[in-house]
Records
---
Amino acid sequence: MAAKPRFRNDAQDAGADTEDRSTKHPVDETLPPLKMFTSGLQHVAAMYAGVVAPPLIVGAAVGLSGTELTFLTGASLFTAGLATFLQTLGVWNIGARLPFVNGVTFAGVAPMLAIVDTTDDKADALPIIFGAIIVAGVLGFIAAPYFSKLVRFFPPVVTGTVITLIGVSLLPVAFGWAQGPNPTADDYGSTTYLTLAAVTLAVVLVLRRFTRGFLKQVAVLVGLVIGTLIAIPFGVTDFSPVTEASVVGFPNPFHFGAPQFALAAIISMCVVMLVSMTESTADMLALGEIVERPADERTIAAGLRADTLGSAISPLFNGFMCSAFAQNIGLVAMTKIRSRFVVACGGGFLVLMGLSPVAASLISVVPRPVLGGAGVVLFGSVAASGIQTLVKAGLEKDNNVLIVAVSLAVGIIPITEPEFYHAFPETAKIILDSGISTGCVAAVLLNLVFNHLGRRRDDDEVTAPMEPGEEISETRTAKAAHVH
């Protein structure tokens, strides 16, 4: 029988003049220019709303003018592009070199608003936030190789649970988008908005079902374009951002003032960094499964270095803490386009949009309900990937069923009961309000209790966690008896 071709990464291929395409992993392949362009644009479209929302929320709380808000949003796009370059292309031991899009993490919004509320002079709020993020990023960068050692506590029963939670946690975002741009407006959740979301979803599904090749792979992008065009007669599409935006605008370093370092703010953002690193670890494990390049300890350490370094650099250009965007994992899972260079191309678009407000405003034209319709497919694909991983975890085993059941329940609490932890301190709520983080911690601890601590020899075949594709055998059962 002929041997299967061995995949190699680009680092192993450095200096080679020729390369047999069949031996290169799909993650390291480059695509034709048109496909690279459109696929990269899809990634930007999928995560655009998530990138611009935090600066808009924080900027409004600080009391920035419309011009300053546009500047802050452009800065977030620019720094998201830089962080994406770090993650996909990599430098030295920095970057997972997986198709990851990085951008502003939502985990930091609540603590940043708390910092704004407790700052007497609002002009100092952003410099204090930026100073805290710089310190948290540097400390996170130092801690990355130690944090990555936790990967051995993430067998399929844990990773599958966390991946499923990522998808389930993101779905409410899509449902919120589908109801309209303003939750306080009278027309929020109107039939017009919901119909636009449903039509966009239907377009994506039809393209995925009845087309082939390239058109099938860019179904989400085409769905967004068609949905936006359909929304024009309903008066939902707003072109004013394009007409009002300037052509060129560079995010000048320290535009809002030199960073300030306040201990309380630093502690708060360090907690956010830990939450972000936990979620990024789960995201890397999820994406590794999807692209068939499992994320090992070294990959996770490199990926966390990119996250934390990107976060430390971001405030220099007036950006916020950066983290991997889970919604783009769903896009990779759905399109099957695994090239990290496609995502790097998306990072290039982000940088250009950060340098050109007009370019940034083009994607902002897409109505929120249209994004919601496409989001159902994207985020649902993440949850489906988690279920596929759980199938490999051996759910016929009672212990694994209990791990999944309780961990999912804990992770879903913030989604179904947002005020469940209202009596806890604000610092604790930063962690508890993240269902991905709490579910991940619960799954790891329960796996240790049920599958490792005090395991009896006659329980090994039933409870020992399995790796993807691994089958129970007498050899493995004998080996498992020595793992304690």
---
Amino acid sequence: MAEELPETPETADEEPVKQRKNGLYPGVSDELAENMKSGWADTELRDLEPIPQAAETAARRAALSARFPGERLVIPAGNLKTRSNDTEYPFRASVEYAYLTGNQTEDGVLVMEPTADGHKETVYLLPRSNRENGEFWLDGQGELWVGRRHSLTEAEKRYGIPASDVRELAGALREATGPVRVVRGYDAGIEAALTDKVTAERDEELRVFLSEMRLVKDDFEIGELQKAVDSTVRGFEDVVKVLDKAEATSERYIEGTFFLRARVEGNDVGYGSICAAGPHACTLHWVRNDGPVRSGDLLLLDAGVETHTYYTADVTRTLPVNGRYTELQKKIYDAVYDAQEAGIAAVKPGAKYRDFHDAAQHVLAERLVEWGLVEGPVERVLELGLQRRWTLHGTGHMLGMDVHDCAAARTETYVDGTLEPGMVLTVEPGLYFQADDLTVPEEYRGIGVRIEDDILVTEDGNRNLSSALPRRSDEVEAWMAGLKG
């Protein structure tokens, strides 16, 4: 990784560029600084088209404007976060900002200023790097180091929103008058500029509204979620084809294999992939992925590709590493499959959100009683929640630009709400028998099974977006055998 050149006072614009303590160059000569100002081609892009979701983002901003008339609304993208010393984590814009603009660049801020008939919208962005003062090659975030940015004119064409220099925004916000709301937690500088103008309660109302807006997906979002799922299916196929290499190494081979598909076809993985072999399958969020992969064990793979527009899939399959379930593995797997079938059948418009969870839990409780692992009757087990020792988690969640989407929505509109066409949620029951659980027979211990699919609520029921991945145990075995060839 190359080192940045140090800056000299003569090349500074407003603030000196931070100098690396142990850089190899002590300074910049006047002659070099002058030389770097000129001789560069005009790279302005003049034939840009609006982003594909421009109409949808405009409609979302209109709905936001209608909800908060007469108030200034400030929605930041966020800033780069340091990973170590002078390296940063890959940037991902805040969901609220990306949902309303389609833009994904760091430091961006959407500001909606109240007018007599709605709001005036401006997206504040970093402009092209300044070549006159040397910023583009001396600053660690200059375009020579991190790549070209869109000019403000280009940004206006792409996002359909007037664009201005974000470096001027904090000062303008300090002088702002009238009611203001800001989405907190992403940009400390913007929040500091508004510290005497906002309240936590009013800002939370803004965050909640933006979260609830995403409960029902539009056609663009559903299309992106299907893209994410389709890439995820191919990622699962990739993994099955290299299970022999994973056996020779570790769970990390599985993680790396799926990540390659995510980066080639999408933006990234939507969350840390869970590549849990053997007893690790009983750890719900096993993301260390450093354990062995053994023939005869199960592999619980919970992973999702994130598209370039931030929509993520979230799919789980529990696969026999050697391609064949043992009798006990199949018994447990089939119980989870039956529970998922009951849960999916309960997903339909007008149903309560909780219905699919209750349906799946009922099946699992029945099997646990049937196997003699918990004393019935089933209704007693469910009333006391005794099945939760082995089922552990809820049966699903909303899905979208966050893997656990709409998390800030009010309980009455989410968990206690009613399903509507356009909602997308996961259905993912599981059974987990911990390796140290002395309440179950020894042969059960260390077996964990989860099956998860992404379900769209339709006008007449539901559609399984991830149906291309086999779920039934015999179909899984046949699918794996076909891929291994």
---
Amino acid sequence: MDDLDRALARLAGAPAPAALEGIEDQVLRRIGSRPAVRGAGLGIGVITAAALGIGIVGAELPATASPVVSLAPLGGASPLAPSALLIGEP
């Protein structure tokens, strides 16, 4: 047995501290004395509705039209080739 096993065995055999007597009652009394939060659900609902509205409006807005780009591998130089992108020429 190593030191940790001996220490845990000694701790398991030790009596519980007197300060822990009745701690369950104290904890439950303190939990019961706290006021319940009632307005949190409304705030989350408003934030959710606002995010949903922004998403719907953003999806319906027209996007700017981009020029059609040919990506044919054998049809000339591709405008998306690294060399064309580095130079900045279409």
